Amino acid sequence: MENTFLLQIFRSLAPTEHAPVRKFLLSPFFNQRTDVIALFDQLVRAQQTGALAQLEKQALFEAVYPGLAYNSLNLNHCFAYLTERLEQYLAITEMQNDGLTERFYRLRAFRRRRLTQLFERDARMLERRHQASPNRHAGWHLFQYRLQNEVFSHRIVQRRDGPTNLAAAGEALGQFFLLENLRWACTAHALRSVGGTEQGLLLADAVQELADRTPAAENPGLALLAHSLRALRNPDDEAAFQTLTGLLRQYPDLFPPAESRDLFMSAINFCIRRQNQGERAFARPALELYREALERGILFENGVLPAYTYNNIHILAQVTEERDWARGFLDRYRETLPAAERDNIYRYNLAIFHYRAGDYGQVLDLLQSVEFSEVFINLDVRRMLLKSYFELGEWLSLASLLDSFAVFIRRQKALGYHRDNYLNLIRFTKKLAKKGTNADLVRQIQDTAAVAERDWLLKKASGNK
Question: For the chain, what are the domain ranges?
Answer without folding.
Answer: 5-97, 374-465
